[in-house]
Automatic annotation (TrEMBL):
GO terms for molecular function: 4 iron, 4 sulfur cluster binding; metal ion binding; uracil DNA N-glycosylase activity. Residues 27-174 form the Uracil-DNA glycosylase-like domain. It catalyses: Hydrolyzes single-stranded DNA or mismatched double-stranded DNA and polynucleotides, releasing free uracil. SMART domains: UDG (SM00986), UreE_C (SM00987). This is Type-4 uracil-DNA glycosylase. GO terms for biological process: DNA repair. Pfam families: UDG (PF03167). It comes from Faecalibacterium prausnitzii. Gene3D superfamilies: Uracil-DNA glycosylase-like domain. Its EC number is 3.2.2.27. Keywords: 4Fe-4S, DNA damage, DNA repair, Hydrolase, Iron, Iron-sulfur, Metal-binding.
């Protein structure tokens, strides 16, 4: 399956109840040959309205961190979510909702073949790295899973609520830049 076919099928998805309350499916955004994939938990209100990931206040913060390490969502990285539709009141996605959406993320993963996956927040990290993952204790550490490096950092929305964690998150992005220089071939 190629990008356009995958996106068209995803935009028509009715695999779980989240389709009933969405405005837009938030498929993902970025370079289709990106070596670095960022994964959040799911769209918020701004994302649901615009159909793009991380476009609200937390997305603006994420863009600042990306810019600081020479990444750009339109040029050399890709941003997606575990679930493609907004959970009501921005609650965590239910296990059944995450499970219904994972085939879309797996196909994005298959097409991208990323070298590094950055989980943005607890929900993504617990789904993609390990069920008992603690972002507070393990942020910024890299884990090799089948030849792909996984790392988690604070979700940008959490940083807006708890600004004292911003220096730790920035350090995670600096470590990411070093890792990109080490393992990626065409990101920079």
């Amino acid at each position: 399956m190629e990008w356009e076919t995958l996106k068209a099928q995803c935009l028509a998805c009715h695999n779980c109840g989240l389709c009933e309350t969405r405005t837009n499916v938030v498929f993902g955004q970025g370079a289709e040959d990106a070596e670095v994939l960022f994964v959040g938990e799911g769209p918020g209100q701004s994302e649901d309205e615009q159909g793009l990931p991380f476009v609200g206040r937390s997305g603006q913060l994420l863009d600042k961190y990306l810019f600081a390490i020479d990444l750009d969502r339109k040029k050399n990285c890709y941003i997606a979510n575990i679930v493609k539709c907004r959970p009501p009141q921005n609650r965590d996605p239910l296990p059944a909702e995450s499970e219904a959406c994972m085939p879309w993320l797996r196909e994005q993963f298959r097409l991208l073949k990323p070298k590094i996956v950055v989980c943005l927040g607890r929900v993504a990290a617990q789904r993609m790295i390990r069920a008992d993952f603690s972002v507070v204790r393990e942020h910024g550490e890299f884990y090799n899973k089948n030849g792909i490096l996984f790392m988690a950092t604070y979700h940008p929305a959490a940083l807006l609520r708890q600004p004292r964690s911003k220096p730790d998150a920035f350090a995670d992005f600096l470590a990411l830049r070093e890792k990109i220089q080490e393992v990626c071939e065409h990101t920079y």
